[in-house]
Amino acid sequence: MIETKCRDIGRLYEALKVLEATLAGTVDRDELAQEILDFLAMAAGLKPVFVLGRGLDSQRWVDGAAGLAEEFGFYVVRGILWDATPFDKFPRWYRDYTVERFAALRAVYVCSSAETAEEIESINEAGGRLSMSAEARLLGYPECCVAAHHVSAGRYHQAILSIVKRLAGGDRARMQALLRSDVPLFPKTARESANMEDMFLLDPAPFGSWNQCRSCAEDDHSPSAKLSEKYRALAETTDLELSRTLSTETG
After folding, report:
1. What is the torsional sign of CA 134, 139, 140, 144?
2. Which residues, in sequence order, are CB contacts of 195 under 8 Å at separation 6+?
3. Rg (CA), the chain
């Protein structure tokens, strides 16, 4: 049984469908269906935060959904796009570069409680940095899957650092200049290729917007599988057409 935090999931869904109709032909239908389910999951108590602006790239959707969130009494916080990738083994200048890049990106955080909204404000004040466990808790995702994602992200950054170091002959100033330039950074060594490709070996969760770790993907009774089932149940009880759209997307 889904514990509903929003007084009327049905009314919220109908409002989202009205917004969806205004976006017809301008956004990917499957992506929008997943965003709508994520919004409903926050409203139903499956996750504390729904993030707008990180997935579907449509300002009309972001603005419209944020407006509906405020209309339905949720807490809306605008701020930096957060990042939990661990950079403790990277040079400080590279870590500063990545923080600078994320500081230019924005997201809208729709929160189910005032306490969660206050936590998001604190993350904004910290430059969008948070722990992997905090990210998993706030998004309501399996912590093992979030950790695996960031391991892959870390390997991607290792590849980028290796490429610029090779191209710049180890000169830090030239490495920094390369990062800020439009020069394509292609892997050359086997390790660079493996580290970069790992970031794009994705196994999306059925009915969910998180990518599964290998353990979860191979286990029908994993934390990811159990959570996906809750998302599936929410979709089915809300609208069979929404469920069918998402089933087609993940099938």
Report:
1. negative
2. 155, 156, 158, 159, 162, 187
3. 19
> Is 82:54 a contact under the CB 8 Å cutoff?
no
Task: Dump the DSSP string for 202-249.
Answer: --BPTTSSSBPPHHHHT-TTSHHHHHHHHHHHHHHHH-HHHHHHHHHH
pTM of the model: 0.89
Residue type, 165: K
pLDDT at residue number 2: 40
pLDDT at 7 over 60: no
Q: What is the largest CA-CA distance in the chain?
A: 61
Q: Any idea of the CA torsion for 198, 27, 105, 210, to the nearest 10 degrees?
A: -40
Residue 10 is inside which H or E element, if any?
A: helix 9-22
* Average pLDDT over all residues of the chain: 91
- Residue range 40-49: mean pLDDT, rounded: 96
